[in-house]
């Protein structure tokens, strides 16, 4: 990947020449909630310039794409996706998602870990890095905790999860929930994640007010388990970021979106997620593109829908300096 310094030095050189130039497009600007004309120059794997004057970077070897009458959006980001449910390799999954406009997913590979331990998680990460799909890795608490009532597989231990918090790809710890609040190992992992500046993903289906308060006190600031609009409204008023879930295992978008379309609350703390999706739905319905379209069909402003699918997610995971917008 081209570093920021390298990009700056290149732009500051005498005759910089872009690798790719997209002209005449309609940019969906997630920073200003506008749609406006813009030309985009790209060097390597980085956006170099977004401006009506970006054509100064066009040279003889620059590939030019005319995007007249087309809309240009940032890559879409899935904030909570258990990829094993697709039964696809990461190579095949990346191919399917990229064709649908998804360029980044937050996942924990917990199923890999529960079956074959940390090496399996590393294998999935390594394979993913050979594709253009960006993995926002979440430390998989479920690989350690989920099977406890039925006999933990013991494939992943808390000390291994603790090491994962410092992995370069790690942006969050995943699935912190009320049932875990009495587990001292979970508390240690959440505290370490918090101290390392990682996002804390929660799991809070229909909690009592006391349960939600106790969970929030530990650190989780998001939830992907919201089902009813009344539940969503209470959580968002308490500062919980809402991941609007729409997948094969659960379809909550219709109810959750009412908080935005009818209650008219601010959209800045909403995101989209899949949770689980099988290959058939992925092929026939789509992925993040389907969620955006469905939200719009339910009355959500189109640019707001794109913001929810891009910049909101990037800001939650603290990666908005690299993902989530075209700027």
UniProtKB/TrEMBL annotation:
Q: Which PANTHER family match?
A: ADENINE DEAMINASE, N-ACETYLGLUCOSAMINE-6-PHOSPHATE DEACETYLASE
Alphabetically ordered keywords of this record:
Hydrolase
Name by which UniProt lists this protein? Amidohydrolase-related domain-containing protein
Does the record's keyword annotation contain Hydrolase? Answer: yes
Asked if the Swiss-Prot or TrEMBL record annotates the protein with the keyword Calcium, the reply is no
GO terms of molecular function: adenine deaminase activity
A Pfam family matched by this chain, by name?
Amidohydro_1
Which organism was this protein described from? Answer: candidate division MSBL1 archaeon SCGC-AAA259I09
Superkingdom of this protein's organism: Archaea
Start and end residues of each Amidohydrolase-related domain: 71-327
User: Entry's Gene3D superfamilies?
Assistant: Metal-dependent hydrolases, Urease, subunit C, domain 1
